[in-house]
Amino acid sequence: MFLITDDQTIEDLRLFAKREQAGIYDIYNNTSTRGGEMLLEKMFRNPLSNLEAINKRSGIISAYAKEGVVFPFNAVLLDSVEKYISHAGGSEDSQQTILGEKEISTGVIALIELLHSVMDFLQNGAIVQIPQLEDERKEILELLLDPALEPVFREKPGSRLSFGAVTAFDMLIRRKELGKVKTVLQFIYQTDVYISVAQVANKRQFVFPVAYPRGSNILKATGVYHPELKVPVANDLHMHAGKSVVFLTGANMAGKSTFLRAFSTAVYVAHMGFPIAARSLDFSVMDGVLTTINLPDNLGIGASHFYAEVLRVKKVAAELCAEKSLFVLFDELFRGTNVKDAHEGTVAVTKAFAGKKSSLFLISSHIVEAGEELKQKPNIGFHYLPTRMNGTVPEYTYTLQEGITDDRHGMIIIRNEGILESLATGKKHG
C-alpha cells in the first residue's frame, strides 16, 4: 500500500527543512496541532501506492478545500487534553510525573468540552457532506455514543466540577476508556492534516492530480513548477508507454536540476493524494519513486562518487527485476567518472532502462553525444533546456523543448569570468 522510496529520494526532493532551508513539508504544514504535524510528516515519509487510497485521500482534501473549511477544534483545549492524556496509564511507573489536582481538573474539563465539539462536528460539521469519510464518521460517532461515555455528554461543556466528579471522570478517562480517547485524538489529528492541506491548496491554487490504475503508464504534467520558487517557470512533459524514457540535456545553469526536482516532487506528492504545483497532472499509480540528484560519496565504505552511482543503479535494477513499476530519475548519470566511461555507461544503462516498459525513467546528461546512439530505441524521447546567447552573455529560458541541445557555452562563461586572463597576467578580473 505504501510507495517504495528511500532517504536518498527524500533528500533529493528536499522534503524536509535542512540547515535553515525550508522543505516541501513546510509548504503543506498549516496544521493546528502537534499530532497533526507528526501525522503530516508520516504521510510525507510514506506516500501511497494504492489507487483507491490515493483517490480517497485526494477526494477528502478536495472536498474540504471546496467548502473552505477551517479547523473546527480549539487548539488551546487540545493542548490541555494532550498534556493531561500524556500522563495516563503511568501509575505503576515510579518515574511518571504525577499531575496535581488543578491539572487533572483542567484536563478533565478540557476533554469534556473537546468531546462535545467532536460530537457536534460529526453530526453537523462539513464532514457530513464528505462521502469518503462516512464510514469513519459513523465509527467515531458510535464510539462517542458508547454508554461508557454517556456521563461525558450529560455534562455541560465548560461547567465547574466538584472534586468527586473530577475524580470519577479522571478514572473513566485515563483508566477505563483511554483507548477511545486516543482514537478520537487520532481522528482530530487526521482532520487537522486534511483541512491544513486543503487550505494550502486554496491559498496557492494547487491542483489535484488525476490517478490512473497501475500499469497504464500515464504521466502527463502541464504547467508543472517548483513550489518553492517565487517566480517559477512552468513546463509540460508527457510520458507514456511509447515514451517511457526521457533523455534530458542542457547546459549548466539552464535549469535541469530545478525542472527535475519540480517534476519528480509533483509525482511524489501526487502519490500522497495531495494537491500539487501545476496546472494539471495525470499519473498512473507506481510501485515506487526513486531519484538520484545529489548523490554523496559513501566515504564510510571507501566508495568513490562513481562507485556510489553504480550502487545506486544496482539498487534500482534490483527493484526493476522484481517486476516493480517505478518512476526513476537520474540527474547527470555517471558524472563521477571520465567522459568515455560516462558516455558508454549512460548509453548502456539508458538502453537497458528502455527495455523496462512498465516503468518510467527521466535521465539527464551533459553527454549530448549519447543522444545519437539512444535514438535507436523508439521509446526514448528527447528534451532539452536551451541557452540563448545575447552577444557573449548566455541567457536561459528554463522552458523545456523537444530535441537534444547543441549548446556548448562552457568556454564562453569561463572567458566571461576572466579566469584565463587572470592566470596569464596575475591580475584579478573585475
From TrEMBL:
SMART domains: MUTSac (SM00534). Keywords: ATP-binding, DNA-binding, Nucleotide-binding. Residues 243-421 form the DNA mismatch repair proteins mutS family domain. Gene3D superfamilies: 1.10.1420.10, P-loop containing nucleotide triphosphate hydrolases (3.40.50.300). InterPro entries: DNA_mismatch_repair_MutS_C, DNA_mismatch_repair_MutS_sf, MutS, P-loop_NTPase. Transmembrane segments: none annotated. GO terms for molecular function: ATP binding; ATP-dependent DNA damage sensor activity; mismatched DNA binding. One of its GO terms (biological process) is mismatch repair. It holds the Pfam family MutS_V. SUPFAM superfamilies: DNA repair protein MutS, domain III (SSF48334), P-loop containing nucleoside triphosphate hydrolases (SSF52540). This is MutS-like protein.
